[in-house]
Amino acid sequence: MSTHALEITGLAKGFDGQGVLHGVDLSVRPGTVTAVVGASGCGKTTLLRLVAGFETPDAGSIAIAGRTVAEAGRCVPAHRRDVGYVAQDGALFPHLTVGQNVAYGLEGSARSTRARVHELLATVSLDPAMERRRPHQLSGGQQQRVALARALAREPALMLLDEPFSALDTGLRSSTRTAVARLLAKAGVTTLLVTHDQEEALSIADQVAVMRDGRFTRVGSPREVYLAPGDVFTAEFLGDCVLLPATITAGVADCALGRVPVRDGAADGAATLVLRPEQLVATTVDDGDQGERLGTVSSSEFRGRDVLLVVDLGAGEPITVRQHGIDPPGVDAKVRVDVVGTAAVLDERP
């Protein structure tokens, strides 16, 4: 029997003769959060709808808590899959109160149902006294928490979140997703989240799956996919990056930044290195200084807590350095660029 809460194998789906998902594989461990991140139209919402049971796959299989719910010729209906689903806008019933929304689908006496509603509202950090309010009387963040409480009410084996924070403003989105992540972890609920927000995926997930054109380009822990993305698309999609041509010999790369250690397992020969801008530190030096890793700051973009410097090394493409915004090198300053940690090597060789 599988030890995974969700097991997706060879999943394929198309509409009107146009393929959307192409042989997708994904395993999710119990009690963890997996974020599927990708640009609009890449297939991530279709994947979620297939897991929920709103669509039928063309090929492949889906198993939830060890029970196959979709495979060739057989598809368990959505209401029998033991999943909770929170849509982008919460999808609360506007004519029902908060308490009635949370209680929707619960069975039992009125007294036990109300006690369960109060428990769930407290779980999502809402005052049980809010049970008499209508959805339009709540903030966007409160509505999402009510939607989460409703989804948790039936104690699903799997929670599905479809861009649940994208309709909120920036500050509220950050605080709401932090609160939701804490609640899901405390409840030990296995969760599959789809989002186009890279920061969101990296900040709350135990596992990140990057999707492009209906396929996963990289699946791993947030740290793994960010620092060792594997290909140019994944590297650039997850944030600013520095790509450098190099020659590797015995675990050390020779490149425009001198000799840089690379991650274990990199084969000797021509390669492309990946560094994140925060792995680089630019320090002002005297005009007469000589040696490796020297360049000139050609532009500076102040961002408050940090600053993005573009440094011209005199050969190849300029590089981007991200460092603290307090007293950074100025434009036209001569700097030495040092590397923190190791560089990753793209799977694609030149």
From TrEMBL:
Record-linked InterPro entries: AAA+_ATPase, ABC_SmlMolc_Importer, ABC_transporter-like_ATP-bd, ABC_transporter-like_CS, ABC_transpr_FbpC, FbpC_RD, Mo/tungstate-bd_C_term_dom, P-loop_NTPase
**Top-level taxon in the UniProt lineage:** Bacteria
* Matching CDD domains: ABC_Carb_Solutes_like
Keyword vocabulary terms for this entry: ATP-binding, Cell membrane, Ion transport, Iron, Iron transport, Membrane, Nucleotide-binding, Transport
As recorded in UniProt, its EC number(s) are 7.6.2.9
Q: What class of enzyme is it?
A: translocase
**Which Pfam families does UniProt cross-reference here?**
ABC_tran, FbpC-like_RD
Q: Which residues form the ABC transporter domain?
A: 6-238
Which Gene Ontology MF annotations are present? ABC-type ferric iron transporter activity; ABC-type quaternary ammonium compound transporting activity; ATP binding; ATP hydrolysis activity
List the GO terms this entry assigns under cellular component, sorted alphabetically. Answer: ATP-binding cassette (ABC) transporter complex
Q: Which interval of the chain is the signal sequence?
A: none
- The protein here is known as ABC-type quaternary amine transporter
Q: Which organism is it from?
A: Mycobacterium yunnanensis
What are the top taxonomic ranks of the organism? Bacteria, Bacillati, Actinomycetota, Actinomycetes, Mycobacteriales
